[in-house]
Input
Amino acid sequence: EQYYIFYPISLVLISKFLVKKKKEESYIPFLTGILLLSFALSVLSASTYATSFFAFYLLPTRMWELTLGGILALNVLKGKRNYFLNSFIAISGMAMILLPALFFTEATTFPGYSALFPCLGTTLVIYANTHENFVKKLLSSRIMVLIGLISYSLYLWHWPFISATRYFSGLIPDNIYTLILIIDVLLAFVFAYLTYCYVEAPLRRIDFSNKPLKLLIPSFLSVLVISSI
Output
């Protein structure tokens, strides 16, 4: 939220005081400078235990990740209409996203250098997907689109299940612990789908502009009940 307040203001200031030609390319040197400075702060902060908290949570050390997307959104880096080249770029990006999920551990310093993998990977996938490629076809399949639609609810639901399993891990036999985690993930998908169908989608179809209290009062009461519990 902080980034999306300050980023447009930064672009306005750059266009007003620092560039003569009002073209997208003119922003690149300044945004690259911001990106590199933020990344350097991230690497320095993440390298010590005392400052790793700041590296993870504060805007100056994480804004380089968002700036990658900001530069990409300027559409200065035009993608090539080459199916095999775009597929190679996108597959490389997907590998950079997925490999950390398999190989990063509690001992991995993060963000710092480690954050380059998922962030650059995501950038490459988005860049390549402006044209046809293998990964774009995969991500456009019905099952992947469905996962995308329920992804926010899935994000909300998966953690309570996994946290509960970890909390009661001492009561769960070791030979079924992994099975319970798999069931957690499946339950998260089921609840996410139900939440999308019966909460997210219906709310999006209702126009609250004339009667905002119809949204605010139930929302406030829900928060009050959950907080009380």
The chain has eleven helices and no strands.
